[in-house]
């Protein structure tokens, strides 16, 4: 019989050393991505998950298909909403969009990781007298690898680019960053415990990667330093989504 290895042993230096964690309710550490074709499909997912899940991500697919009304439905149910809009434009436009979003009750909002855009979003929220949404800067999409960056003209190693963009985002006032679990440990050590790290591209060990390239399990990402994990397909494809979500929450708890 083979020797079972721990997450720390499998990830090696990617696991963050023990340190203070933000006081985040366990269920809020799991964010379910409502990446389904129609709003009615998303509502069905939410109904199936019931009280198991408290936090949902609405991405571009849903934003342009009635997703804002879906967000209102989620607010009425007492759920938290992560609006993954990845806002990018001139600073004034991003600021105006953020000001409008700050009136909706949205918990998290993504913007591209350029410092002027981050500053504009943070300033607009402040000017609106709001505490939310927390502003998250996208570092490098988990669907990209080093070859993709080379095609885009980036010579910098991928991890270095993620770190560079994350540090710039922190300087610009971002509340957190979006990054893969492979960079989470280094980011945690550099950003400290109060900047949140959200890790998408989460897959179970036996699940296909699909269009993602830098993926980890939920437990691995949390052990590496992530505060929240975003899970879509693993839950959406499960014959029992609620049971799958509970298993992921248990995995997160064990990693903590």
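Sequence proposed for the structure above (256 residues):
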């Amino acid at each position: 019989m083979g020797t079972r290895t721990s997450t720390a042993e499998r990830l090696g230096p990617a696991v963050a050393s023990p340190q203070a964690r933000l006081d985040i309710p366990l269920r809020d550490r799991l964010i379910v991505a409502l990446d389904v074709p129609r709003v009615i499909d998303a509502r069905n997912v939410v109904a199936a998950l019931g009280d198991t899940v408290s936090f949902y991500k609405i991405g571009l697919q849903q934003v342009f298909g009635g997703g804002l009304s879906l967000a209102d439905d989620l607010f009425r149910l007492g759920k938290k909403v992560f609006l993954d809009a990845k806002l990018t434009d001139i600073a004034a436009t991003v600021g105006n969009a953020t000001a409008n979003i700050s009136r909706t009750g949205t918990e998290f909002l993504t913007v591209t990781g350029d410092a002027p855009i981050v500053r504009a979003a943070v300033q607009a929220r402040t000017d609106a007298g709001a505490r939310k949404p927390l502003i998250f800067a996208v570092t490098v999409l988990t669907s990209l690898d080093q070859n993709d960056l080379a095609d885009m003209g980036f010579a910098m190693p991928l991890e270095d680019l993620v770190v560079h963009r994350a540090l710039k985002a922190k300087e610009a006032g971002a509340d957190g960053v979006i990054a893969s679990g492979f960079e989470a440990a280094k980011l945690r050590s550099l950003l400290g415990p109060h900047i949140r790290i959200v890790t998408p591209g989460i897959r179970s060990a036996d699940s296909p990667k699909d269009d993602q390239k830098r993926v980890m399990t939920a437990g691995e990402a949390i052990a590496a330093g992530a505060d929240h994990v975003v899970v879509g397909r693993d839950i959406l494809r499960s014959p029992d989504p609620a049971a799958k979500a509970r298993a992921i929450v248990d995995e997160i708890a064990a990693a903590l």
